[in-house]
Structure formats: C-alpha cells, structure tokens
Amino acid sequence: MMTLARWKVVLVLLATLLGLLFTLPNVLPANVTAKLPPFLPKNTLHLGLDLQGGSYLLYSVDTAALQTERLNNTAEDIRSELREKQYAISDLAVANGAVGLRVTDPAQMNEVVNLLRQSVGAALPGAGGGRDMTVTPMPDQRIRVAFVPEAFAAEAAKAVEQNIEVIRRRVDATGAKEINPVRQGKDRIVIEAAGENDPEKLKRLIGQTAKLTFQMVDETASPEDLAAGRVPPGDEVVSSSDGIQPTYLLKRRAQITGEMLTRANAAFDQNTGQPIVEFRMNSLGARRFADVTRQNTGKRFAIVLDKKVISAPVIEGVIPGGSGMIHGHFTQESANELSVLLRAGALPAPMKVEEQRTVGAELGADAVKAGATSAIVGLVATMIFMLLIYGGLFGGISLIALAVNAVMIIGVMSFTQATLTLPGIAGLILTLAVAVDANVLIYERMRDELRAGRTLIAAMDAGFARAWGTIFDANMTHIFSALIMFNLGSGPVKGFAWTLAIGVFTTVFSAVLVTQVLLAWWFKAARPKTLPIGH
Amino acid sequence: MDFWPLIKVLPVRTHFRFVRWARLFTPLSVVAIIGSLFLTLSPFKLPCGGLACGIDFQGGTVMDISTAPQRADPAKIHEALRGLGLNETVQTAGAPGAALLRFEAPKGADISATVSRVESALTQAFGTVKFKSTDVVGATVSSELLSKGLLGLGLAILAMLLYIWFRFELQFGLGAVAALFHDVFLTFGLIAIMGRFGKIEFDLKSVAAILTIIGYSMNDTVVVFDRFRENLRKYKRMPLGEVIDMSINEMLTRTIITSMTAVLALVALAFFGGPTLYGLSVIMLFGIAIGTYSSIYIAAPVILLWGVKRADDEPEVIAQPAR
Q: Is the whole-model pTM more than 0.95?
C-alpha cells in the first residue's frame, strides 16, 4: 500500500480514460459524435437482433435434393443418348441415390456400359482423368450409375459457396447491404437482417431457388392415360399457378434455362397495363429459343419457376432476337421480386429454413426499456446496499471501482463491436452486482488481519495480497462457464456469455487495482489511525 | 452508538456449529435431489422429460402476435387456422389483443412456408395483425441444441472438477463437484416445478442460467475452500470439523453481503426485465441461494467424510493468531 507502484496508477488512469473514451459515443447525440475529430472512437454498442428487431435465418442447403436433381438429369441424358443410338432399354429410374436401367438385349450389355462410361457425368478436374460418376454392370442385364462419393461431396461444398454468392447478389440488388450471408458448418448458411420488418419478404428473396426453365407442353398424351396417372416416358406433371389449368404435362427436357438469361426487369404490358417481366438471353439461349419457336410454332411451351408453371403461352411465330416477356399473374411487387431473382440467378442447390428468429422493432424497443429499467434499479439497489454496509468511504471506493468496471465493459463492447443482447444486459447487471464481491473479499480480509493484531498498514497490504488468490480462483470459474456458453450457439445466449467473460477481466482489474490505488491515495492524504470499517 | 456503516454493528465473529447440522441437512438434500431428479425425468420421455420443453429443444414455432384493437379471441384464431392441420395452442395473457401461438409444422412440411400460411390466414381473419416475434426451430436444429446444451452442462462440471483438483486437492474437487451436482439437480427440479405452472420453460436460456449458477456456486465454494485450506495449514491439530466450522464462520459476512448484492440485482431483473429475463433471473436467484447452502452442507461434509492430507509432522505455523 505504502509502496504504490507508479505503473499501477498509470494503468488505472489509462484504463479508465480509454473506457470513458470508448463509452462516450453511446451517450453523446449522434450529431455531436459526428463532429468529433477522426481519431476519436465513434462506435456505439452493437445491439443484438432481440434489442433492435430483425430476423435471424438459418438455412440448410439441401444437398440430397441437388443429388436427386443431378441424377434425374443424368437419367434424361441416358434416355436420349441410348434412344439416339437405338439401344433398347427399360426400367430407367432414379432410386436409392443412383440411376438404374435394364438393357433389353444381353448382347448389347457391354456396348452400353462402355458407352455410358464415356458419356455420363462430368470429367473430374486434374490430370488423373476419370469421371464423377461410376457405371457398374449388375446381374440381370442391369446397370447402376452413381456418383463417386468424394466427387459429389466436393460438388455439394461448391454448391453451398455458390448459394452464398447468389444470395449476396440478390441482397445487393435490393440495396440491403448490411445483410451478410455467412456459412456455418458444412452445409448451413446464416443470415442476420437487422431491422428488416418483413421476414416473409426476406425469405422469398433469399430462400427461393428461382430455377427458371422453358419446357414444351406435351399435348399428345391422351386424357384417359393422364387421368389414370400414366405419364408418358420423358414427361412430367407440373402444377401451375397461371389460373388456366391446375396442372400441365410437360416434356422433362428444359429447352431454355435461367442461366441463359442476361437481363430481366419488371415492366408493364403496353396493351393491358399488367405488370410483366421482360428478359433477354445470351447468344446460346437466343439461338436455341429461335430454333424452338421455329420448330414448334402453334404449340405451347411453359415457363416454369421452381417446378411451377407460371405461364404457358402458344408460340405464335419465330422469336429471333432472344428477348421476350413473361405474363404471369404478377403484381408490381412480385414482378419486381422475380426480376431480381432472375438477374441474380438460381440457387445451385435448394435450401430450407431450419431456424428462424424474428423480433419486431417494437418488441426490441420494449426489451431495451426493460433492460435499462432493471439495470438502473438493480445497480442503484446494489450501490445503496454497499454504502449502507461499508459507509461513505469504503463503500464509495467500491462504487468508484464499480463505475470504472462498467465503463470498461461498455467501452470494450463498443470497441470490439460485440453484440449486446437482452440476456447480455442481464449478464452485465449480474456481473456488476457480483463484482463488489472482490471488494468485499478485500475489505473483510483487512478486517480479519486487523483483528489478528496487525498494524493498519500491514493489514491493508495483507488484505490485497491474500484476497488476490481467492479473487482469481473465484473468477476463473466464470470464465469456464462463459466459454462453454459461448459454444452453445444462439445469439442471445452468446451475448450473455460474452458480457460475462469481458466482465470477469474488468472486474478483477477494477476491484483489485482501482480499489488499491484509491485506498492508497486516501491513506496518503488522511494518514488514518483506524480503519473506518474496523471495530 | 451509530449504525452506519452497518459493517460495524454486524457480529465480528460468529460461532455457528455448521458441521453439526450436516447430519440433518445432508440427508434432506439427498432427498431433495432424488425428488428433483424424479420431477425432471418423469415421464421418461425425450426430449425434456418432466420439464416444460421450449421450442429450442423440441422444435416447433412460437408466434407472439397482437390483434389489437380487436380482442384476440382464441376461438377465432383456431377458426382461422382450421385446415392447416397445426394442432396449435393459443395463450392469451397480458395486453388486450396479445396472444401467444404455438404449433408444430405438419411432418414433412416446410416450416417456413407454414409460418407464411399462418400469417396470411390470421391477417385475413383479423384484418391487421402485428407479428411481434416469431421463433421457428426445425427438428434437426432442436436435437442439436439439446445435445449441445447437455454436453455444455457436463463439460462445465468436468472443467470445474479439474480446476479445483488442480488448484486444491482431489478431495476438494470432489466436494465441489458434489455441491455442483446438488445445485444443478435442484435447479432442474425448480424448472420442472415452475414448468408445471407454466412459468419457466426449459430452453437455451435456462441452460445458460444453469451454467451461470455453476459459475457462481463454484465461486462461493472456492472462497470457502480457500479459507479452509489456509486454516488447515494454520491449525494443524484442530479437528477437521472445527476447521470447517471456523472457516465458514469467518467467511459468513462476505457470503451474506455478496449474496445480497446478487439477489438485489436479480430481483430487479425478475421484476423489470420482462418475460425474456424472468425465467433466467428466477433460476439464478434460486441458484445463488442453494449455491451458498451447498458450499456449507454438501461440499464441506464430503471433505469431512473423505478426509484430507494434513502434514502433521510439520510444526504449526501459527498456533494462535499473533497479538
């Protein structure tokens, strides 16, 4: 005590000053903060979604669906390839994560296997060669075509990355730049949107696969077959939202896909004034579109979005330029949304929501109020209690240590931009209330030492020296719980853990060092003979 | 005689015979633990047994809505949602027009699309509806959260055992961990009982509260142990029971003051913190109380039963406090 090292004083003053500096932007009005010199910190506390309102969305990327889709495409490729080369096959179907088929003529078995080995799947990158699918002959003239597991895993991982990329493009297109999709684990994507008032709109923007295809309508099938559920090979039944027919029978093969679009924007039909979506294709798409319209004039083709027909117009003539328009049943808003989705492109793999937490801005404001009220009441009660117990001087010193502690916690949280949640506020209050424990330990130790017959100075010294180990051990226990809590996931709980953890360090610092410096100053100034808290 | 500061009028040194009462209290605690375990587990069904399972661990959807200025008539809400096959429960409380909806999306249905359907059905029925908060947790995430939560609790207890073992002795660690188990089980019992009255749910926040209790209970145990270890070195020939009594008595003022400040803060949180913080603060209030108790009546008796190594051959460092 008597030998108060200078570094302690400097450290305490410095920490208090820095704490104040970083806390200040939280209490100053924004226009004052803006005028401060640039070297001063301007960050305010970063409020969690539960305090400012907003949505947390956890998506899982459905890689199984991606696999099924790839297998379905492969099955179609096999069908057309073998038909072209006039091999007779049957039982072509996707089941159990593989494409299965049966070659009718046993003599052709080897030829078909060899042909498929060269054509299905995609070539693997790298010099090793090989393809990402294996073709296995099975008994009874059957053939099984499946993915090489590692190759598909790599593709799935790439799809997750591409999904994030597409989401980012979509979000950017709407100008909501603070929304940042983040990958979590192997196949999850987290999106946090503060202040977004309509989570449904956000989910439409982010979660929709937006896979656009143009497929020919198969008008040759007999209505009886369809009624009996017999779908011609290579066809599929797709539900519709065009308000004309509930379902359409479509050729599975997509003539035009969304990737061929280069532009899409919302517009109005010049005749009817209805909202529409205009699009323009790249050269490949334009050529293909011209071919298709030439060969199929008078027939109908369907514009399909995510396995739903949005419009099925009759082709009235060749469309050469590669541009067109979609007449869905759009409102101005939905036409806008669709054009954003088409411009940003489809998600390579579909996603589904696994977890959603939405808090309205109003409820967030209520939470801030509740947090603030309980903080003030709890802290004022603690302060009064400490003053009552230890009197103006020692009680007051513990309160100054408490104030430094609070300023440091808020300063650190503002500086690191750690998220403050409502449970975080609870953690903060609790930390501060229990922080006085360190002061209590020190004071009680001093009283013990005094009672044991030591001189005042020796008792004060021993109070610090001996209480230190206890304070350290006792606070380590909080670090463990906070660390474990931090790994629990869930934003609000993380916020709680974070304030607890920061609080442990600031508490040890302020209770030990700040108290020590203040007591030493008092001792030098007053030269007391007895301790005001002794008997 | 002035009464301020109060510390001057508090008794200097108490001489309670804590250890003597252990014969009574420790068996009582064991009974309470068994009771709590039963309440927590029965009916023996996953995921939450006897606890009121929050959606964090069970999956499902909770929507906090307001139909103000209209009354949130549960019958009307059920009517609006008929046909969605949700089997929803509606709870109306507090402000007029406020209602809490809970449901589980039908198996295989997209949980997020279900929320959209519910929102449009309600908006159609009531005109304007405010959706104050919506929480949706899917089955995969909820089972992950549950295992993470339980694993977290286990890890916390293990970490405490290792730390105390490292800083003190194995016996101390075992005593501390026995006290921890006591606190954790009784807290689960509290959550089970409060859950039956619809007051507290078992969710991530409760787990966070229990983890905090583990921290604080340990904090208290460490403070008592610290003094205990010191006294063991000082008074080498004093019977173990007396050393324990003396140590607890010496720390009693501190224990009471610290518990009081924590209680003051937590009561403020429970009263003014709103529904989100209510469960969290009540659990922690209870935890602080039993944490203090268990340091005395669980941790210390375990050490007493087990005994500790005392270097008897060394002379007593301080036979009597120096005068």
A: no
